[in-house]
C-alpha cells in the first residue's frame, strides 16, 4: 500500500498513482546470413515464410504464412468497402427494402441511427 503524507493544508494525501509502462514483445535475435548465399525470388514468390510484427506475446514467435486455401473465404473480402448510408438508401428507394439482405438491412439501420445521433448532438451543441 502507498504511504500517506501530510499535505500543505494538513490533509492526509497519497502520492500520485503511476501506471506501469508497456512495451512490445522483444524481437528475436537476428540470424546472420551467409555472404555468398543470395535468395532468388520470382515475382509471384513470397519474400519470407513468416509475418513479421504479428506476435504480441513476449515469449511468442512470429506467425508463419499458410497457403491461400487454408484461410477462410471471408478473409479475402476484408478489403472490400462496405456500402455507405447514401448507397443503401438509394438501393431501397430504387428496388425496395426487400432487395437488401439481412446484413445490409442491419447496416442501414445502424448507419441511420448513427447519422440521427450525430445530427441531434450537433444541434444540441449549437444552441
- Rg is 28 Å
Looking at the structure, what is the overall shape?
A: flat
The low-pLDDT segments are: 36-41
Count of DSSP H/I helices: 2
- Find the structural class using helix and strand composition: mainly alpha
Q: Which whole number gives the mean pLDDT?
A: 79
SSE order: EEEEHH
* Major β-sheet profile: 2 strands, antiparallel
C-alpha end-to-end distance: 48 Å
Strand segment tally: 4
Indicate the percent of residues in helices.
25-40%
User: Which range does the strand content fall in?
Assistant: 5-15%
Give the spatial strand order of the biggest sheet. Answer: 1-2
List the helices and strands and how they pair.
Layout: E1 5-6, E2 12-13, E3 50-51, E4 63-64, H1 85-95, H2 102-126
Antiparallel strand pairs: 1-2, 3-4
Overview of the molecule:
The strands form two sheets. This protein has a two-stranded antiparallel sheet with strand order 1-2. Strands 3-4 form a two-stranded antiparallel ribbon. A hairpin with a 5-residue loop joins strand 1 and strand 2 (12-13). The two termini are 48 Å apart. Mean pLDDT is 79; it is low at 36-41. It is flat, with a radius of gyration of 28 Å. With 127 residues, it is mainly alpha-helical. The chain has helices at 85-95, 102-126, and strands at residues 5-6, 12-13, 50-51, 63-64. The longest helix has 25 residues, at 102-126. 28% of the residues lie in helices and 6% in strands.
Amino acid at each position: 500500500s502507498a504511504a500517506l503524507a501530510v499535505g500543505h493544508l494538513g490533509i492526509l494525501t497519497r502520492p500520485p498513482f503511476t501506471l506501469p509502462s508497456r512495451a512490445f514483445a522483444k524481437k528475436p535475435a537476428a540470424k546472420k546470413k551467409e555472404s555468398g548465399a543470395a535468395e532468388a525470388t520470382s515475382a509471384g514468390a513470397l519474400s519470407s515464410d513468416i509475418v513479421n510484427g504479428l506476435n504480441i506475446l513476449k515469449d511468442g514467435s512470429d506467425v508463419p504464412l499458410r497457403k491461400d486455401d487454408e484461410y477462410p473465404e471471408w478473409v479475402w473480402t476484408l478489403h472490400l468497402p462496405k456500402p455507405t448510408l447514401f448507397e443503401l438508401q438509394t438501393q431501397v428507394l430504387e428496388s425496395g427494402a426487400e432487395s437488401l439482405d439481412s446484413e445490409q438491412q442491419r447496416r442501414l439501420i445502424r448507419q441511420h441511427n448513427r447519422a440521427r445521433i450525430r445530427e441531434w448532438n450537433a444541434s444540441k451543441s449549437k444552441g
